[in-house]
C-alpha cells in the first residue's frame, strides 16, 4: 500500500499540445499487460535528458544519449517494461537499435530520431521480436489524452501509477506541464530505477531546457532513496513542444524562466515523492531535513546516512522511537569535524536530542506519538552553517524483502 | 540460525596466562541473564585498541581511549551488555567513570587503570547502580578458564557465542591466543557493533602491539558488513600478558613477529566471520572477492557496493540467481573509469558475466545450484591491475527486519 498516495484520475491529466501517446500489450514479461509505450512529438519539439551515472548503464541509455547528441530532432520515444536490456553486452546494443529502427519505420523517420528506454529485469536478453510485433498496435493507439494509460504502461513493481498535471499562467498565457514516472525499488539518486517523462507546451531554448532538466532533477529525483541501490536504466526526460502561445524562453533568470522552472520542479518533486510513497514495502513516508550545515554537500551526506540506514528504516517500520539509531547514522556519515554536542535532533516538532544525548524535555510518549504517523519529518540542526538539504525516503519492511526475494518469480 | 557456525566448546577455549575473567548477572536490561564481564590482567600486561570512528562514539569509548593514552598500566576491563551508554551526553561520561571507579575500588587500583565497554540500546541512561551492584559478584567469579562464560556475557542479539583459541609454536615455545567477540547487527567496518577481545601470553612491545591490532583489524573486522550501519561502540582490544617463555617481540618483520601476527590475524578473521555467520537473520554466508584492481581501495569500494546492496542480499536470501543486481552494484560503486566490458563475474567457479553481459557459457541451472549453498563466493575480476580485497557479508532476510523492528521490545 503506498503511503498517502492514490492512483491518478484520468480526467485530471491534461494533454500537452504536440505530444501523443500510444500503448500496447506486447507480452514482454507477462501476457495481457500494458508494457509498451510510444510517445510521439510534433516538429520543433526539444528534449533534454538526465541519465544514470551507473557504469553498467543499460544499452538503451547509451543509445538514447547518442541520439540526443546528434543534430536531428527527436520525433518519438519508446519505453518497454519487463526487461531492462542492461548487462546484455553487444546483443543489447543491437536490440536497442533494432527497436528504434522498427518504430522509425512505422513513423517515417530515422532510427536516430527515436529514444529507447527499458525497465525490468537485468541481464536477460530483450525480447526484441515481441516489442517489434507490439509497436504497430501502440502506434495505432496514439492520442493526446492517453497519459493515464501511459503512466500504467511503464510500471514494474509500482503499485499505483504516478502522473500529475500542472498549469501555470505566465504573462497571461497558460502553460501546461504533465509528467509521468515509474520506480519503486533500486531507488537511489544518480538516479533511481526510475523513468520520468515531463512534457510542457512551452518553447524553451535547447541550452535552458538541459539546464532546467538538471536543476529540477537535483531537487527531486536526486533527493530520494528507497534502498540505496542505483539503477542501470534511470532517465528523466524533459520535453518542450513549443505549442503554447508564450514566446520561446531564452534567458536564464527571466520571469518566464523562473516561473517555468518552478512549475517543472514542482511536478518533478511530486513524481519523485510519489516514487518513495510507493517504495517497495513502504508503510511510512519520511522527510529528512538537515540544516545549519557548512554546505549543501555535507547536509546531503548526513541526510543520506540517515535515509539509507536499515536500522533507522526498520525502527520506523516498527513505529519504535529507537532514535539513537539516527544519532549513530549522523555519527558515521563521514563528517570528521562534526561536533555532536552542538546538534539538535527533532522528530516533527519534538526535540529528541541535544548536548550529545537525549533532550531533558523529551518524553518517550511524544516520540511514540510521532512514530505512529504515516508522514514523519526527521530534522537535524547541525548549528555550524547556513546550508540545508531535504531528502525523502521510506521505511524498511518485511514486504521489501518479500518483493525483492521473489521479483523474478 | 547462524550459517555453518556452532556454539564454542568450553573445553576447547584455552586459558591465557595472566588473564582471569569473572561474570555476573546484573539485571541491566533483563533479569537472570549474564550481562557483566570483568577481565583482570597480571602486572606487565600491555593492551592496544582499535575503536569506532563514529563521531557519535559512546562515552565508554571516549573514556577507554583516555585511559589507554595515560601512563599507568591497564589492570582490568569491564563490559556490560544491554545498554550502549551512547548518545547519553555528560551523564554518560560520568556513568562510565563511575563504573571504572567502582571496579577499581574492588581491585585496589586506580580508576584510570580500568577500560569500560558497553553494548546495547543507544540513548538510554546507563543503569550504573545495577552495574556497581553486580561488580562484586563478577570479581568473586574470576578465574582463568572462564572464557566460555565470558563469550556469553557480552552477547546482545547474537544467537551463539563467538570464541576461539589457537596455539602457535615459535622458536620451540608455545604461544596461546584466545579471543571472544560479539556482534550481529549494526555491523559495518570502522567498525561493527562489535566488541572483540583477543589475549595472548606473548610479550610484545607497546608499539608493535598497536601495529598488530591495526593490521589484524584491517584484515578481519574491517572486512565485514551485515547492514552497513557503523556502531557507536565498536572496539577491538589486543591484550599481551607476557607470561609465555618466548622473549619479548620488539622487531617488526622478525620471524616471531610474523608468526604471531599471522596467528592473531587468523583468530581475528575467525571471530569477524563468526559475526557475519551469525548476522541478524542471516541464512547465507557470502564471500566477496574483488581482484585485478588498480589498488586495494577500489577493490574494497566495489566489494562493499556489492556486499551492502539490499537488492543483492535479498536475491541471495531467495536463492535467486538474479545476478544482474551484482553488475548494477559494481556499476554504481563510484569507479568512474571502470571498463565494464573488461570484467568477469563468477559465482564460486561458475563464470556468470563477461564482455558487458551474460557469459555465453552461463546456464541458469549452474547459477541456481550455487545459490542453494549456504556458503557462496562472489568473485569479480576487474582485469585492470594486481590488487585484491576480500570481504564477508550475509544475506538480507525477513528475520533481519523482524529482529530490528522489535529490538527494544
Short description:
Chain A is an alpha+beta fold and 409 residues long. Chain A is 32% helix and 25% strand. Chain A is globular.
Please supply descriptive tags for the structure shown above.
homodimer, 409 residues, L-amino peptidase D-ALA esterase/amidase, seven-stranded mixed sheet, five-stranded mixed sheet
Describe the structure.
The structure is a homodimer of 409-residue chains. Chain A is an alpha+beta fold. Chain A folds into two domains: 10-277, L-amino peptidase D-ALA esterase/amidase (4-Layer Sandwich); 285-405, Roll (Ubiquitin-like (UB roll)). Helix content of chain A is 32%, strand content 25%. Chain A has eleven helices and 16 strands. Chain A has helices at 59-69, 89-107, 128-140, 147-153, 206-218, 255-277, 296-308, 310-317, 324-331, 364-371, 398-405; strands at residues 19-24, 36-41, 46-51, 76-83, 114-121, 162-170, 173-182, 195-200, 224-225, 235-240, 285-293, 344-347, 350-354, 357-358, 375-381, 387-394. In chain A, strand 12 and strand 13 (350-354) form a beta hairpin. Chain A is globular, with a radius of gyration of 22 Å. In chain A, 60% of the residues are buried. The interface between A and B is large, with 69 and 69 residues.
- Of all protein chain pairs, which has the greatest interface, and how many residues does each chain bring to it? A-B, 69 and 69 residues
Q: Strand portion of chain A, in percent?
A: 15-25%
Number of domains of chain A: 2
Largest sheet of chain A: 7 strands, mixed
Distance between the termini of chain A: 21 Å
Return the CATH topology of the largest domain in chain A.
L-amino peptidase D-ALA esterase/amidase
Oligomer: homodimer
Task: Please tell me the CATH architecture of the largest domain in chain A by its name.
Answer: 4-Layer Sandwich
Amino acid at each position: 500500500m503506498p503511503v498517502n498516495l492514490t492512483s491518478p484520475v484520468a480526467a485530471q491529466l491534461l494533454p500537452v499540445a504536440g505530444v501523443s501517446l500510444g500503448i500496447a500489450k506486447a507480452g514482454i514479461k507477462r501476457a495481457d499487460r500494458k508494457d509498451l509505450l510510444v510517445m510521439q512529438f510534433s516538429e520543433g519539439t526539444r528534449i533534454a535528458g538526465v541519465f544514470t551515472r551507473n557504469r553498467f548503464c543499460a544499452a538503451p541509455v547509451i543509445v538514447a544519449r547518442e541520439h540526443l547528441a546528434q543534430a536531428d530532432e527527436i520525433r518519438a520515444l519508446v519505453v518497454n517494461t519487463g526487461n531492462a536490456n542492461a548487462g546484455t553486452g553487444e546483443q543489447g546494443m543491437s536490440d536497442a537499435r533494432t527497436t528504434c529502427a522498427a518504430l522509425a519505420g512505422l513513423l517515417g523517420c530515422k532510427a536516430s530520431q527515436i529514444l529507447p528506454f527499458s525497465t525490468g529485469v537485468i541481464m536477460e536478453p530483450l525480447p526484441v521480436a515481441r516489442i517489434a510485433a507490439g509497436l504497430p498496435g501502440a502506434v495505432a493507439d496514439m492520442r493526446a489524452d492517453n497519459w493515464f494509460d501511459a503512466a500504467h504502461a511503464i510500471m514494474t513493481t509500482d503499485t499505483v501509477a504516478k502522473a500529475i498535471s500542472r498549469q501555470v499562467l505566465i504573462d497571461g498565457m497558460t502553460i501546461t506541464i504533465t509528467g509521468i514516472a515509474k520506480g519503486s525499488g533500486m531507488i537511489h539518486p544518480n538516479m533511481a530505477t526510475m523513468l520520468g517523462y515531463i512534457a510542457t507546451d512551452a518553447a524553451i531554448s535547447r541550452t535552458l531546457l538541459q539546464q532546467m532538466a538538471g536543476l529540477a532533477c537535483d531537487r527531486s529525483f536526486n533527493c530520494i532513496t528507497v534502498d540505496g541501490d542505483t539503477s542501470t536504466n534511470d532517465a528523466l526526460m524533459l520535453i518542450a513542444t513549443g505549442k503554447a502561445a508564450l514566446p520561446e524562453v531564452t534567458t536564464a533568470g527571466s520571469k518566464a524562466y523562473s516561473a517555468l522552472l518552478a512549475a517543472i520542479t514542482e511536478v518533478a518533486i511530486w513524481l519523485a515523492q510519489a516514487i518513495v510513497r510507493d517504495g517497495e514495502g513502504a508503510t511510512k513516508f519520511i522527510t529528512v531535513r538537515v540544516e545549519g550545515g557548512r554546505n549543501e554537500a555535507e547536509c546531503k551526506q548526513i541526510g543520506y546516512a540517515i535515509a539509507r540506514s536499515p536500522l533507522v528504516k526498520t525502527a520506523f517500520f516498527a513505529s519504535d522511537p529507537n532514535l539513537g539509531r539516527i544519532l549513530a547514522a549522523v555519527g558515521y556519515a563521514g563528517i570528521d569535524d562534526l561536533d555532536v554536542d552542538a546538534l539538535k535532533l527533532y522528530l516533527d516538532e519534538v526535540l529528541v536530542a541535544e548536548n550529545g544525548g537525549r533532550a531533558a524535555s523529551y518524553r518517550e510518549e511524544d516520540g511514540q506519538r510521532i512514530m505512529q504517523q504515516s508522514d514523519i519529518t526527521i530534522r537535524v540542526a547541525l548549528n555550524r552553517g547556513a546550508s540545508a538539504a531535504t531528502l525523502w525516503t521510506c521505511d524498511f519492511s518485511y514486504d521489501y524483502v518479500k518483493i525483492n526475494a521473489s521479483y523474478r518469480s
